[in-house]
Amino acid sequence: MSTKKEPLWTKSFINITLMSLFIFLVFYILLTALPLFITEKLGTSADKAGWLLTVFLIFAIIVRPVAGGWISRFSQKKILIYSTTAFFVACLFYFFVHSFAVLLVVRAIHGIIFGIITTVKGAVSAELIPMTRRAEGLSYYSMAMGLAMVLGPVIGLQFASASSYNAMFVICAVLSVFNVLLAMIITIPGDNADKHVAKEKFSFSNIVDPRTVPYAAMTFISAIAYSSISAFLSLYAKELDLVTAASYFFIVYAVCMLLCRPFVGKAADQYGPKYIIFSCLAIFAIGLFVLQMTTAGWMLIVAGAIMGIGYGSITPIYQTEVMSSVPPERVGVASSVFFNSMDLGMAVGAAVMGIIAGASSYSTMYLTACIIIVVAFFLYMYVSRKGRRYQQ
User: What is the pTM of this model?
Assistant: First the structure.
């Protein structure tokens, strides 16, 4: 048997990874700066800022099952070109926003396009990565989103602090132009023309393949726990008078995530994902436990490092499991299910965790998140015994 590795870093794989970086840069730049934009430029109260993300994600979640079906029936490259072009046009709409109501409409449109583009690029990345290196490839691919998670807020805050919102929208538009150019030069094997697949009657399995459900459920549950970080860490840090340390939390989180993902992906391909997921869930739970008992800045930063290794490493492995649970012609549906389960977990988690924090405390909320991950650990014991991977 040949031990030669199949090539991973092809020109098209590099291009789809760069595209992911630019898409999520735009996402995080706007996510960080728009709450300040609505208070400074639109005169809207800060308590409405949550609607900017909620509306965006709701429309992304709604459209993804449809986009997954398109990927199975039509040329992925064409969908990629059309969706990146629409993403660019959506960025131009922000120049014409003069009221909060109009901004919500723009966010809804942008969310629809974001839902399509993330579904198709996820499917394309799976097509371009060799099956024998899927976990490793998706770990590298997902690092683009991790890098955007660090750079996007920094860029957004720089423009917002100078009240240079039009300049910020220009940057988002320019990044979106790069996406269109990258989509045009990507080569997707076996995707030269639209697929002549008969249109099927609507059924639940056409939008959520039952084989993806166990791993999608794990993604959903883990995202519920992580939503306590993304939605409430800044408020928790403010309560503890550790706002400065909170900024380092995200930097350390991202650094640890970026350092670990390549090694975790290779280990998952070599030894199987089961032990990696068990380890990451345990580490994530430890990080949440440290966070809930935090009293000093160094503890907050340590918690960030632990969770960067735990949750930061586990998401591409979940994606690998979801993609590997279906045959190649269903990878578009699987991509939709993965991203929807993550976004839905974040949306549900933010609401539930907010209720817990309001009824008790942020510390209790993080302890609850820790317990959720412990439950997920034992749930995965059941899921992993089923051996649900599709045999290629």
Answer: 0.73
